[in-house]
Design brief:
single chain, mainly alpha, globular
Length: about 425
């Protein structure tokens, strides 16, 4: 078999295994292990590369960022900080058409800065924002669409699990990936707010809703009490990274400690809750470790097969420039986003294109932001659309169907695509604060 045939066969085998219910890292690992064995007819080589992949992943110092930021996100969720931010912003936007939707976007952006999980954001704000919007006569499709669209901010605004996974796959600095995600994440949040304003002005039927006049206004003291904890966390985590005072691991440790102090001070953390947070941190960390190990094995398999070199030769012979390569890459990411989750897409596709991007002199940090944003659009598109499924399951409301969630999320997926084009056209946006 040619390298191209091996690559296509491996991708097809991985997708088939995933849809048969095989755990994603196991599917990646089995296909990689088997392909190396068949190509070199040497099972010992497969075991040796598996051992190297595990060692490179688990023994890396920066891997400690994963359990630390995961624990911080879980503790912050238990402390109720997401609800506080939403309440404050809801008051700020109460007299604007679509204001509750704008508040949801803003709260999701702030919440993302201390959790790094789209699924957590979708779950939390489905319970808070959707009932509030329905109470004020918003269109149900718009209500769930806002939550679905803004939930993806959790994977772009640091700390982000997807940025960490990409950093391991592309061998880039986790700290650099975190800093690179700030401007694109804020740009996407601003684009969402602008889109909601335009929808409220030109398609009021889709937005619906009425202005909130019956809200009890908070005083400055209560606003400060609700806002300062999360602002402090953001300052400690991102401020320390930007100023160069802390490494990503140290920032994760400091953020975890501060989050725990806030949760205890608010009497939101019991010994049982603390133990549950530790257990869930262990489960998530182990899952990500398996993903990273499998991705490392898969990348080595592609290298042994010679696929990156052959793909480079094909594109060179076709005389495809940067623009066409990015079109092919984005279309492939969008297609796979309809059938696979974000982590799977990054683990499968990124190793194929890294050897093409690096010789062009392009920043692999910028390429990571492009990869994550493109893959995250899949969270809003059928048939998989993981965020949409989470919202539907969390709401458990017969008045809102899964179709409503997907249709509501569609305008926000389009906004993401426009922002993606801007980020590709202007790479400096992703590298602005590095």
């Amino acid at each position: 078999m040619t390298p191209m045939e091996i690559g296509l066969a491996s991708i097809a085998a991985i997708i088939v295994l995933i849809y048969l219910g095989v755990y994603i890292p196991i599917a990646l690992g089995v296909v990689s292990f088997g392909a190396i064995w068949l190509m070199r007819e040497n099972m010992d080589l497969s075991f040796a590369l598996l051992k190297i992949a595990i060692g490179d992943s688990a023994m890396s110092y920066t891997f400690a960022t994963i359990p630390l930021f995961t624990f911080m996100g879980l503790v912050v969720s238990k402390a109720g900080i997401g609800a506080d931010v939403y309440t404050v912003l809801n008051q700020a936007f109460r007299r604007v058409t679509g204001g509750i939707g704008m508040a949801t976007v803003g709260a999701n952006a702030v919440f993302a800065a201390v959790t790094g999980s789209s699924i957590a954001s979708a779950s939390v704000f489905s319970k808070m924002s959707v009932p509030e919007m329905l109470k004020h006569d918003y269109n149900p499709r718009f209500a769930v669409g806002v939550v679905a669209g803004s939930s993806v901010l959790g994977m772009i605004i640091p700390p982000s699990a997807m940025l960490i996974i990409y950093a391991f796959v592309a061998e880039q600095s986790v700290g650099a990936m975190f800093l690179a995600g700030v401007v694109p994440g804020l740009l996407l949040a601003a684009a969402y707010v602008g889109a909601i304003w335009l929808m409220g002005r030109f398609t009021p039927g889709f937005v619906g809703g009425r202005l909130v006049h019956d809200a009890t206004l908070m005083g400055w003291g209560e606003i400060a009490a609700r806002s300062l904890p999360i602002l402090g966390l953001i300052l400690v985590v991102l401020g320390g990274l930007y100023a160069g005072w802390t490494t990503p691991v140290e920032a994760g440790a400091a953020g975890s400690l501060l989050g725990l102090i806030i949760a205890v001070a608010r009497r939101r953390m019991t010994w049982r809750g603390f133990w549950e947070a530790l257990l869930e941190t262990g489960h998530i960390t182990a899952a990500i470790l398996f993903l990273i190990t499998a991705a490392s094995m898969y990348a080595r398999m592609l290298g042994i097969a010679g696929l990156p070199n052959e793909l480079s030769d094909i594109l060179r012979e076709a005389q495809l420039g940067f623009a066409w390569i990015m079109v092919i890459y984005v279309v492939l990411m969008l297609f796979l986003g309809t059938i696979l989750d974000t982590s799977s897409i990054i683990l499968i596709v990124v190793p194929l294109f890294l050897p093409l991007i690096e010789p062009m002199g392009l920043s692999l940090v910028w390429f990571g932001i492009i990869s994550v944003v493109a893959a995250e659009i899949g969270l809003l598109t059928p048939p998989l659309g993981l965020s949409c499924f989470v919202i539907k399951a969390t709401l458990d409301d017969d008045r809102i169907s899964l179709k409503d969630v997907f249709l509501g999320a569609l305008p926000f997926a389009f906004v993401m695509l426009l922002v993606l084009v801007v980020l590709i056209r202007f790479p400096g946006l992703s590298l602005a604060i590095l």
